Amino acid sequence: MDSNTHSTDQSGPRPPGPPDSLAGLVAAVDALAAQDLDRLADAALAEDLLGMRRLLDGLEGQWLRRLAAVDARGAAGADQGQDAPSTASWLRTRRRLSVDAAHSSVRTARALFGGSLPETAAALCAGEISPAHAKAVAGGTRELADHVKLEAEPVLVEAARRVDPPRLRRAVEHLVLVADPDAADRAGQHRHERRGVWLSPTWQGMVAVDGLLEAEAGATLLAALEPLARPADAGDDRTGRQRNADSLVELARRSLEGGWLPKAGGVRPQLLVTVDLDSLLGRPHGLGGETGWAGPLDSEACRRLACDGAVTRLLVSRHPSGPGQADRCHGEQEAGATRDLHQDTDATQDRNQAAEASGDPRTVADGPANLAAWLRAAVAKLPRPWVAPPPAPGGRPFHPGGAAGPARRPGRARRRLCLPGL
To answer: Which residues is 209 bridged to in the sheet?
Structure first.
């Protein structure tokens, strides 16, 4: 067979075109696409824009009307000759809608064209209100009895013609509170039970923050973040989202620093970081540090935290990859390292006291540069346990103390760094 006659199109089957019943709509859309907007006057272009928006709202109403009919007949999946599990799942599959969008559309279609909201449905199909207004009325009155909906619907539709969807939702909430206090209480309890904040580390070395807060809690949080989220100066090029993120972290730091948080076992809350000596000294093969739950930290972040953190020397044994090396590492070094660790601790304290008395700052661990000097002196006599093979070079240089070091942020929380391998 001639290979030239074999089709190489691998784009998959093309979606079917619109049915014949929508031919007029397709022709109108094609005519709009062929129109040269540069030839339209400003007034005509603005009128076209507003008119098209009204038509689109009405078209959305007709789409919901047909969706309600498909749902009532159980015709979801009939386009492919098979039954779909549900109307919402069929929409997600065929039109790639999100879960929330599919379920919201089905609920709105049922309420407007299968429930007790005929005036809202008619106003939407006429383009007098938007789909957002219709969803606000349909969703807000879901728990009300049918006769209450019929009595209140004319007022709600008139309000929808005058106000935006957020204000309309508040009007619907007030109606529900007056007409059915028990339903309002149930809705409030449902919102209260949905509250929550989710923190999860990502594979990119960040922490994702998501959640839902009640209106009162959200307003309280925004009021606390607003003073910290303002631009620092005219040269602050952070985005609003970045300033909000920084202000949330700063708020947590100040809470830790203030000392008013509840203690656990008599110990105030603190950030615990485990970091190896090479990373803290800025050596190129440092392994960085770990906070446990949030994942690894790079060497620069560990050195930045060490600027004003309390340092605790800790002996950590890492398991070598070679057979039999772990037992030899433990047998030869563990007892001697533990004994010398206590001896060196006393010696280091004596040296620091002498340095403080003489005014020599080189061995006093009160800053980045002095911390490095203290660490070098502290580990001079300690045997080093086996350390995992270093990664590829790429460490950043250790920042010196003084003006060249990174500026400390106000309200830095108390931190404790444990140095493994010392």
So the answer is: 199
Domain range for 254 is 196-258
275 forms bridges with which residues in the sheet? 289
Same domain, 222 and 325: no
* Structural tokens at position 81: 């000759």
d(CA 297, CA 314): 18
Centroid of chain to Cα 33 = 39
Tens-place pLDDT, residues 231-286: 988 899 999 999 999 999 889 888 877 777 787 777 676 777 788 777 777 777 77
| 41 falls within a domain | no
* Together in a domain, 202 and 335: no
CB 355 within 8 A of CB 361: yes
CA-derived radius of gyration, the chain: 34
* Residues 316 and 354 reside in one and the same domain: yes
- The reply to whether 135 and 167 lie within a common domain is yes
Place of tokens 């206090």: 181
> What are phi and psi for residue 264, nearest 5 degrees?
-115, 110
85 and 119 together in one domain? yes
> In this structure, are residues 157 and 121 in contact, taking their beta carbons and an 8 Å threshold?
no
Distances (CA, A) of 419 to 294, 296, 422: 18, 14, 6
- Is residue 89 a contact partner of residue 102, using CB atoms and an 8 Å limit? yes
386 SS3 class: coil
Note whether 234 and 123 are same-domain residues. no
Same domain, 239 and 309: no
Structural domain contains residue 379: yes
CB 160 within 8 A of CB 120: yes
- Closest CA relative to residue 154, chosen from 187, 199, 120, 203: 120
**Total structural domains within the chain:** 3
- Of 193, 210, 245, the one marking the end of a domain is 193
Per the CB < 8 A criterion, the answer to whether 394 and 286 are in contact is: no
Place of tokens 């007056």: 178
Backbone angles phi, psi at 212, to 5 degrees: -130, 135
Domain membership of residue 265 (yes or no) is no
- C-alpha to C-alpha distance for 39 and 59, rounded to whole angstroms: 27
pTM above 0.70, yes or no: no
H-helix or E-strand containing 110?
helix 99-113
Q: Are residues 362 and 393 in the same domain?
A: yes
pLDDT tens-digit profile of 120-144? 999 999 999 999 999 999 998 988 8
DSSP three-state, residue 199: strand
